[in-house]
Amino acid sequence: MLDVTAPAPCLNCGRALSPPGCYCPQCGQAPAHRLSTAHVGHEVVHVFTHADKGILTFVPLVLLRPGRLVADYLAGRRKRHFNPFQFLLIMVGVATLLAKKLGYYEIVGASVQASMVARRVPAAMVARVGEYFHALSTYFNVWWLAMLPMHALVAWAVYSRRPTRLNYAESVLLLVVVNCAFQLWLVVALPTVLWVFGREPGASTAALQGIVTLLYLVLVGRQGLRLSWAGAGWRALLTGLLVAAVNYGVNSFAFRWYVFGSH
Predict the structure, then answer these.
(1) Rounded CA gap, 124 and 128, in Å?
(2) Residue 37: strand pairing partners
(3) Which helix (H) or strand (E) holds 92?
(4) How far, in Å, CA of 52 to CA of 185, rounded?
């Protein structure tokens, strides 16, 4: 005979629930039911407005008090915040899609092609420049995220000593928070830069990245790592310069290899 007294299992992990209908003690899933339009709408609103970890509370925090976010994560107070790693993935995707729709990298590529034509560079190489910037436009999110571990290695070299003593994973967090802020500013800046600077916008967004990185590393150093203004400032400046050097070196190598050396 069927045992009607047996506890119902969690539909996510299979653990028996006692009493039935409670949250699962193993995976934390709430009692599940068939999806409805109302339920989906509630989940969407919940993500953006939940008081302790919604995106709408995360955005002003990362823009105005990034050090508090870093300090909370380093101290283990993480559940109260929206996941910064997840937020960064979302914002990089949004920025990539926006740049693609605006034709940002194609415009940058066209200005590079024009300068190469003026120098009488062979047409085949000029064409490959267009291919390169088209690929960069399509896969910029992948390229940008692939650079993050190298940037974190630079930050670790700067922040691993006293008094901060961050390990490599904590250095990754440091740059994730800073770059969450940068991606937010970038989404606002992309259409503005194209409108103001027209067909030569590349240097403008590079300058924006440098300024935002420097400013937010100083804020994190002061608010989250309890450094003096001088201590936060020189670490931010050194990290920013080294990150810029890494970006320049890797991007220059990739560009020259594809345009001049890959065929």
Answers:
(1) 6
(2) none
(3) helix 84-102
(4) 24
Pairwise CA distance, residues 187 & 204, whole Å = 14
In order of 47, 174, 219, the CA distances from 231 in angstroms are 37, 16, 11
CA distance 217 to 234: 10
Residues across the chain: 263
DSSP for 95-157 reads HHHHHHHHTHHHHHHHHHHHHHHHTT--HHHHHHHHHHHHHHHHHHHHHHHHHHHHHHHHHHH
- The residue with tokens 């088209």 is 134
pLDDT (0 to 100) of residue 104: 86
Tens of pLDDT along 229-256? 999 999 999 999 999 999 999 999 999 9
Phi-psi group of 103: left, alpha or beta (phi > 0 → left; psi -120 to 50 → alpha; rest → beta): left
Specify the pTM. Answer: 0.80
Q: What is the dihedral of CA 202, 203, 209, 213, to 10 degrees?
A: 160
> What's the gap between Cα 164 and its chain centre?
23
Spatial distance between the Cα atoms of 45 and 156, rounded to a whole number of angstroms:
37
Token duo for residue 162: 């006293």
